[in-house]
Amino acid sequence: MTEQASSAYANNGNTSEAADFGFEANVEQLLEMMTHSVYTERSVFLRELISNAADACEKLRFETLSNDRLATVANAPLITISVNKDERCLTIEDNGVGMSRNDLISALGSIASSGTRAYLDQIKNESGAENKEPAANFIGRFGVGFYSAFMVADRVDVFTRRAGEEKAWVWSSHGKGHYTITPLELCDAPITGSRIVLHMNSESDEFLDPWRIESIVKEHSSAIATPIDLTPAPSEETKRIANGSALWTRQKSEITEKEYQDFYQQISGQFDEAALTIHWRAEGRSEYTVLAFVPGTKPFDLFDPARKSRSKLYVRRVLISNETELLPSWLRFIRLVVDSADVPLNVSRETAQKSPVISSMSKAISTKILQELTKLSENTPEKFTQIWNNFGSVIKEGLHEDPNRRDAIFAIARFATSKSDNKTRTLKDYIAELRENQTAIYYITGDDTKRLASSPHIEGFNARGIEVLLLDDPVDAFWVTSALGYDGKPFKSITQGLAEIDSIALLDPSANPPETVSEVAELVGALKETLADHLGDVRISTRLTESPACLVAADTGLDRQLSRLLADKGQQGGYNKPILEINPTHEAVTALAMKFANKGLKDTQEDMHLLLDLARIADGDLPIDTVSFTKCLASLIAKNS
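The structure corresponding to this sequence follows.
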């Protein structure tokens, strides 16, 4: 027990009087926690020290506006990083405002005492209101970033000189709860600013590699407003690794197409050209800048099961996260950069907290991107078609997952149809060509457009000139069940329930089929009995004109393709027995009907199973018994040879 606590206990321990105690901390343990628990990535130390250096340069710039004397010592803002492998030292130097002895005590001698926050408070007090111009350019807020240096260094030395002051100081600590401040010879001190020297520990060799330092800077700090130079070794030439200008902070009119494309390739890791660039600044309750790219080709991770968006979140031009969930999964192909000064962060600045600001930004950004895609589809349809061909299958996920934006997605959606001739059409095009008495938007789902276009189910619709959407993406089987419809017309699967198209006239009135022979009605009953284990029902079809038979789903329940998808995932409960529809005028059906009438069930059972297997194959399934099916076909070939 400390002397203070013992005294308090002696004075109050045996009384009922209230007492006031101060928290006590083991500073060494606190530093250990700060440097090993707050941050998840050790490389973050460099980002934090660069952010502090950038703040120092910004402070000096701001002070020179009102102090002509400081203007004489201020140079163009610059941060220099130097590597010395032989001495195992990494140095981060800036020519910013520097620190006085009192500044060192208050800022570096007190954990979680942010010099930037104190400086902004001072500005606020002096001006009577928050000065947004400088605040937007300052990065530090919490006052703990500096201590991340002890993750990689056994000792940290800070050589500094406050702008406008004669004296210079060196602050030094091993991060064990103590530090020293001693006067510094002016010959060893910067003219103004700070030089932080990290004496790297044995586990931090990677941070003495100039290539590693350059990669960290380019990933996390290349956008800050201060240029950054790197000196790879004492004897090597210094080179510029960050020019102090973030592309997205510049006016669109000042940026060339090549600069946009180069930046897209940098953040995407791809070598194609972006198909669409979207760049804007949002103002209002939240202010942020957005630069978004639609890739020209499909990214390799487009169908990664995680379905994460690749959005870079910057706060005051410092990269906070590479994978912030700022976009819904159905826009995950967008390569996005967002820079905000309003996002609330946790103490380590490594993750944005879940907040109304993030949620509001996410909704607004998604809406804006969708608006830009809509404009492109209307003004440059050829260019939009390229985007849809690459990413339409992903955008359609939004039809199922984002009901609030479903109408907007329908406006840009493109579909292959039975009339499209290898081109895609919009739902607006579809509605404009509805046949008389047509009350629904008809579709068929599967996994291959060509097979869908030749499906037996579509024959009766083609005969009546009814356009059918050919939906060959897995997500299509899901969104059509949740979407109510489009322009007042419901979506209806042509593989489910009754076709109900008799009221729509045939394109060729002379093509009306002959009357059904009576023997077919008897065949229907025999098929129901013989194939009861595999079918829910057998009925005469109004949708078939050329094929002998097809399988359809029940009037209620799941579409055939959705049933298959659920069955593949082990959800057998969604897989109901199909219905067999037969074409009463097809020669194979009439021949089977006559054979059944003349020879009975025993001699026609094999043919009935063959008819079912033919329908299954046309529907994309295997025969029920492949061995029996092949034997049956071989027997037929032998009989007809």
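Residues 356-379 form the longest helix (24 residues).
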